[in-house]
Amino acid sequence: MEGGNGPDLQLQQLPLTTAAVSVLPHEDPYSYKENLIGALLAIFGHLVISIALNLQKYSHIRLAGSRDPRAYFRTKTWWCGLFFLLLGELGVFSSYAFAPLSLIVPLSAVSVIASAIIGIIFIKEKWKPKDFLRRYVLSFVGCGLAVVGTYLLITFGPNSHEMMTGDNITKHLVSWPFLLYMLVEIILFCLLLYFYKRKNANYIVVILLLVALLGSMTVVTVKAIAGMIVVSIQGSLQLGYPIFYIMLVCMVATAVFQARFLTQASQLYDSSQIASIGYILSTATAITAGATFYLDFTGEDVLHICMFALGCLIAFLGVFLITRNKKKSIPFEPYISMDAMPGKRKVQYFAILPLKHPLSE
């Protein structure tokens, strides 16, 4: 009896073993290869973007005194920067098709590291070694911490993968975790927008949190579009699904509104504050969106999740130290013509910083 039941038991247990393997894609060695490809594409893209922006900035600085405001169009440096910018954006866009969203988004710290290193290498002022180290010690420490955080992110990042087909994306879009997340995000966004527009709450955290909430939707749609394009290139056409064009419209709309809020923030606050606070808020919201929409951390053990969170915190601290060391731009008071004021003498003053304004005496 026992000998006759043995083969039946083995045949009944075989499908269970196969099913167990299919629901644990993070144990597949090929998924680690995809993670590495996505991470390398993201790092390459952010490095190239940083170089491109500095090339274009260099071109603008050289032509600062030119009478023609568009003289930079005739320089090879600016066009070279534009080419590298498009190449870097293409690399970052492609990385979303290979690696989980929660792994790619924090790697934008590479751009901050590269900008800090380029700024130190091409600095024009001459400093004594002691003054140089004292001035840039925070940048060195911040770059080191950001590199360590990036290493932890790549090593312990989520490793869940699935085919970005139209059916899978539609299922994620109507899943209850993402619908709940969207409800909370919409309520929070409307409250922040009310205080920002009606109550004039022009705090940097409010503006950048609006940017971060929009950005979380942008990266979700970017991953969906990039994944569907890659699947289409591999032979299974996905461009006929309506969800592809819905995601495309959402990506463009959220990106445009992000740019508007960032422009308003840049007019009120220093760029270093925007870089550090924006990176922290955008990364946190994007990881939350990836965890609820794409279920990035499904099947991951507690150790990997804790080490990934530690890598994020170290990267946050590194970016904060790098941006904190940058010089804050001193606001310059524009030329003031007193003859425009009724009852005043036709006297013209120039605000010479950092002296007191003549009207305050």
TrEMBL record:
InterPro entries: Mg_trans_NIPA (IPR008521). It is a multi-pass membrane protein. The chain crosses the membrane at residues 36-56, 77-97, 103-123, 135-154, 174-196, 203-231, 243-262, 274-295, 301-322. The lineage of its organism: Eukaryota, Metazoa, Chordata, Craniata, Vertebrata. Keywords: Membrane, Receptor, Transmembrane, Transmembrane helix. Its main location: membrane. The keyword DNA-binding does not apply. One of its GO terms (molecular function) is magnesium ion transmembrane transporter activity. GO terms for cellular component: membrane. This is Aryl hydrocarbon receptor nuclear translocator 2. It comes from Platysternon megacephalum (big-headed turtle). It holds the Pfam family Mg_trans_NIPA. Belongs to the NIPA family. It is found in: Membrane.
